[in-house]
Amino acid sequence: MKLRFFGLISFFTLLYGVLVFNLYSIQVKNGDFYVARAESQLAAGAGTLVALRGTIFFSDKEGNFVPAAVEKEYMEIYAVPTEVADAEETGRTVAFLLGLPEEEMVVKLKKAGDQYELLVKKATPEQIKALAEAGEIAGIYSRKYGSRFYPLGTTAAQLIGFTAVNEDNDRPTGVYGIERYFEERLAGVSGKTDGDYVKRPVAGKDVYLSIDRNIQSQAEEILTSLARRFTASGGSVIVEDPKTGRMLAMANYPLFNPNDYSVYNLGVFQNPAVESVYEPGSVFKIITMSAGIDSGKITPETVYYDSGEVKLNGRTIRNWDLKAYGRQTMTGVIEHSLNTGTVFAERQMGHSVFSEYLERFQIDEATGISLPGEVEGSLGAMTGASPQDINFATASFGQGVSVTPIGLLTAAATIANRGMMMRPILEVNEQPQEVGQIISAEAARKVTAMMVSAVDGAVVAKIPGYTVAGKTGTAQVPDFKRGGYTEQYIHTYIGFVPAYNPKFIVMIKLDKPSAILAGQTVVPAFKELAQFIINYYNIAPDKLATNNE
User: Fold this and answer.
1) In angstroms, what CA-CA distances link 371 with 113, 211, 275, 424?
2) 115: exposed, middle or buried (C-beta count within 10 Å: 0-12, 13-18, 19+)?
3) Most buried one in 99, 332, 482, 526, CB count within 10 A?
4) pLDDT-derived band of residue 165, with 50, 70 and 90 as boundaries?
5) Which of 457, 533, 522 is nearest to 498 (CA)?
């Protein structure tokens, strides 16, 4: 009995000794190895604590949603150099299996004290298969992770933006466009660990945009073709429902692919539709006429005599074609785009009334659209310490004042929407927001009729069966170094269809094209895009076609 008792004591004493020895081996003798392995596993598994980013969707006329920015699953192959016994041999093996440079693999695996070394960021199925078939290789691992992917490529790139990792964050965050503006909503909440406790991540929420994928694609195709044909430096197209302010398209040129943003210059990432200003030129005349008619100072039938020039403060203003048109109505001013006519309209109003209306149209304010970096327009020298008559005169036809494309579109859409300004909105479920009644519905109707008359007279933008309201703008580009203006131009066209019950409004802007006149560039482009939208929405004709159409 005693012998058996002492045998049991000896057995458990020996067993306890073995356990103590193993504990010493793990915690002391080989402690660095296991700490390194735990840290490498934590680094490799950290992706499981990053919240799944929300998806950005476009829509279409049927109410379907098309993903424009998604989280895509990739496989990563990485190494834990501290677990690699023979860097030379393992490096050769990995290089052979993965089709990578052997010298590069060996260098990575030889890094002393390194617990994580990326070998392949986006591994192909063939690489993953080859690694799996080779069996376990000490220190070589693979894992799944999510990364941002833009399935539509260059489509609406400046509008959507992209995500990137920088010094201030340890996970991809939105740095431009919708990705940046809705960062908090899209990002969600990352998980975290506290000892043995793991707090699960909370996925980000999706963003549904009113941007119609089909209209957007068509707008980009037309803009890109136009810019390349006339060797323009840039351009923008915006399409909106003027009754709600809902954006249907926002295209820009040049293009870039957010999936490969690192190969592009920084300047191409900004959205010029909201982040740039320019002098709009003659398209601004519809704002001047709106102010004059609404204030009661002029009517579409008000007559003046055009001598071809106006002299103010020692300077001479002439019509764009250097011609004199004699007796003209205000409608004729819009039809022929006469600078002298809008100067006359401004002088009939007086500077204070004209300035008041430009403020009503919020020319020098941001629209509040849900995009980052929106800048404000400017009323230029009109708001200076001692503005001169010439400053108000040039402003009447869009020189000496600056606007953003989205700001100009919002002002023009106010005319299309019977004088009610709407805040431009981008989300499908966002309720329309009225900014205010800027001019009366009657004044808006009269200006619309003037714009229709201009389209009918010029013919280029006419669409058989539809009343089209539109106005061109050809503005000289300022010379910021020497003052005055250069010999380069910016072309703009704004039009809405059907004129008296518009379903859409389009603004096309082209920067520094080789052609001088907007009638050669943006007007035909507007007609092409307008006809596409009419067919796409199956908009019924609002007037009978004549033999002349």
Assistant:
1) 45, 13, 9, 10
2) buried
3) 526
4) confident
5) 533
